[in-house]
Amino acid sequence: MRLLVLLFLQAADPGALSQQAKTAMAAGRFDEAIGLYSQILKSLPGHPGILLNLCLANHSAGHYAEAVKQCGLTLQKDPKMTPANLFLGAAELKLDRPERAVQPLERYHAAQPNQPVGQLELATAYMMLARFGDAIKLYDALAINTPNDPRVFHGLGRAHVDLSRQIYARLTPGSAPWAALLARTKFEDQQYKAAAELYRQALKMQPDFPGAHAALAEIYRQTNEPALAEAEAKLEKNVPPSGAFAEAIGHSAKALEAFQRLEALPPSPELYDIKAEAASMKGQHADAAANFKKAFEMKPNEARYERKYALSLSANRDFEIAIPLLKKHAMPFELGAALLESGDAQSALAPLQAEFKKNPVKPGLRGLLGRALLAAEQPAAALPHLIAAKANDPDGAIQLQLSRAYQRLGRAAEAAEALKVYQSRQAATAPR
């Protein structure tokens, strides 16, 4: 009995619980740490240090809304808890709220101006808000202080590209600088005929437009017309560009330099992560999966890489490998989607229903659940989910499922109407 009392007292001791929480955090058991820090708060309500640890644990576990709440409470209790600003801003970024992330991240940066994590998070916020010039200043500093971080050069390259595009968007359509910048893009895509026409358009409006004759000369070299190339080269006056055109091509050159430095970096999890995300954006899911796998192999304690690997495998329809990983990482929505796409609607129901119970407003969930129920021969149960999902159905796919559900329930008129809506939306979204 005495032993039980001692164990109870030890378990309730904030110091012992804090040590257990630190151990859990170090081992990546973030949900366990959350429970322990929450228990400590019962003994030490409002303690800013424990609130900050709870914020960090929630952020590490991916519970970003809760992290925002706990970081806010931390700063209310003690505005001098500077790290809370960093985690607050980082969590807001994860929730796609850069406008709310900037202020705490700027406060953190003011207090810790040379802290790379704070600089990188603030640069990310500026990028999301299209404040590319502000982002470039931070990336330039990071390039000096953290020259082997691929995220820096990827961000720097993107910032210069986006700033160049921003400048281009402000130009008068059809003007000489506008035509010349568009010509550069066409040339990079090896659309030499279109590029040549645009350069001639620029020269027609401004006969001495800097670099246009040299660019035409290069086009003729690429198309094996040396005589024309030589003639154009002689016409170039080698006057340096100026104004918005010079700014835009300057940013393009700096973007290229940043991307070249990125490619020259040694392999790292962050580099593979960047390559994987770029492949995903292009729909190259096999390449994305391969890079996420490399990232996870280099850093096996970083579970997010394996989760991204699983999602890329699923997008590439490699369900045999993806499904066990989705189960391992307790991703019910993604698991249900993979099972459904693999043809196992019956097995998809349990994870999708569990997700619906926990988060009924999750985007896309009701449509998936409706599809799964319909495929599992439960049209009556599928119907309310499909009706709820049809509010966001630009291509009519949900309307097609609705039509099938109505048909199986013997509601022919409603089935015909839903099918008609599906066909009209398909026609409206078909490639022209």
Secondary structure elements and pairings:
Blueprint: H1 2-12, H2 14-26, H3 30-43, H4 48-61, H5 64-77, H6 82-94, H7 98-111, H8 116-128, H9 132-145, H10 150-170, H11 176-188, H12 192-205, H13 212-222, H14 226-235, H15 243-264, H16 269-281, H17 285-298, H18 303-315, H19 319-328, H20 332-341, H21 345-358, H22 365-375, H23 379-389, H24 397-408, H25 412-429
From the structure above, extract its key features.
432 residues, Serine Threonine Protein Phosphatase 5, Tetratricopeptide repeat, 0% strand, disordered N terminus
Provide the β-strand percentage band: under 5%
CATH superfamily of the domain at 2-108: Tetratricopeptide repeat domain
Helical/strand content category: mainly alpha
CATH architecture of the domain at 2-108: Alpha Horseshoe
Written description of the protein model:
Among the domains are: 2-108, Serine Threonine Protein Phosphatase 5, Tetratricopeptide repeat (Alpha Horseshoe), CATH 1.25.40; 167-262, Tetratricopeptide repeat domain (Serine Threonine Protein Phosphatase 5, Tetratricopeptide repeat, Alpha Horseshoe). The chain has helices spanning 2-12, 14-26, 30-43, 48-61, 64-77, 82-94, 98-111, 116-128, 132-145, 150-170, 176-188, 192-205, 212-222, 226-235, 243-264, 269-281, 285-298, 303-315, 319-328, 332-341, 345-358, 365-375, 379-389, 397-408, 412-429. With 432 residues, the protein is mainly α. It is built from 25 helices and no strands. The protein is globular.
